[in-house]
Please model this.
Amino acid sequence: MLAVFGGVVGCGAMAADAPVPLRPGAGGEAARANCNVCHTSDYIVMNSRFLTADAWRAEVTKMREAFGARIDEATAGAIIAYLAANYSVAGKP
Amino acid sequence: MRRRRMIAGAGAALFGAPAVAAESTRIPAELPDGTREVVHFVNPSDKRRMLCLTDRPPNYATPVNVFTDAVTPNDRFYVRYHLTGVPMSVYDMDGWSLSITGDAVERPVQMRLSDLLDMPSNEVLAVCQSAGNRRGFVDPHVAGVQWTDGGMGCAVWRGPALRDVLKAAKVKPEALEVWLGGADKPAVEGTPLFRRSIPMEKALDGDTIVAIAMNNAPLPVWNGYPARLVVPGWVGTYWMKHLTRIEVTSIPLTNYWMETAYRVPAGMFPVERPFVSQATETTVPVTELVVNSLIADPLEGGEVDRSGFNIRGVAWDRGSGINRVEISLDGGHSWQDALLDRPLAPYAYRRFILATGAMRPGTYRLMCRATSRTGERQAERLKINPGGYHDNVPRAISVVAA
Model:
């Protein structure tokens, strides 16, 4: 990750442990690439499995609209489908 | 008049319990399955044995056994960030300064740490508790960082009162809010800076301080070195870490963190002093803590001595003080009063203890519930709200008497 410096004090983007691997599956690579930018993808695993597919859609929309995630429509759709299949309450064994 | 409370040596006599309590090793069972996959115990930065929820941004909970003490040590104090651009060491804060500007000051100023050190200081023993504390136990689960009950701590905070700091900039009568900003930064440009505000009334309260010391030491880097705001009785989200920027304004702060996050349905959680300028008809900001308590010893799943054992823990509220703590040994069917340690300060933990006496061998479900001086008692049922805030329903832990 690139360090983000600015202002009078330096706050580097941090080195951290590798996240828990995301489950293999269609859309998994897009999730790994896009959902590790502003936080570890452990945020996904931590929030499983109790969200519905709609709640995951709302989360991805929030990341784009409230937090400025640069994820295009098609990629967002693929990630939502991946989260619904692997991390939603419906996918719970 | 400046109040200075006597804190050193507090509670040494009556509650002189064994110095070494067992370290908790369990990941609480109520957490979501996925959370249980990611959380683990670690020794992060200048801390030791914390429950890591996420390491980027750093979110670390204090293990429950630490709350056998009324004061939480700096190296066990919880850590909460939203954004990943955080200082990694105190050296990242070299050149730190605090600016005070805004349309409601006459004379914008910039202060260095030495300026704060030169000012008269106030000392406040107060609980800092994350608004999302216990979110991970909320049933049904809600999205967010899945906090255990360790998203909190109580420390002796010392530094100048915010009102004295603001005085340097000459606050105008039309001042409505104090906007706060810290040094942490988002990873990408589109993410809103983490900025919060407090109403003038709370800003001018003498217990609201710019803390430059925590438990008689510099603040640990992840607890806000070199200076953080201390807003006693209010949830941690207002306790801005690495406080670099203050604006005193005549208008309410509008941003994602104020308008969308950290809000609860209007009327659900009564408060003493509402944050009027941030209230809407349907929602209000989470502000004052609700009365709460927890058992720190024995630990969930522990084995206890059937000839009798002590149940110890802490209770706290928004600052009125704790009046009563009751303990149940049977999952909430019957309750008996615990013995209370003397009150240390209005916003501090109050310790409690109950000696059980001899018991039959078997499994017991221990619970505690606190009542404040104003008569507020912990909720019997969760007041369900989208953010999973203010869960103060007594929680049972099981122990086996043998």
Notes: Confidence is low (pLDDT under 50) at residues 1-14 of chain B. Chain B touches chain A through 45 residues (CB under 8 Å). Helices of chain B lie at 33-38, 113-118, 162-167, 200-203, 256-259. Residues 35 and 338 of chain B are 33 Å apart (CA to CA).
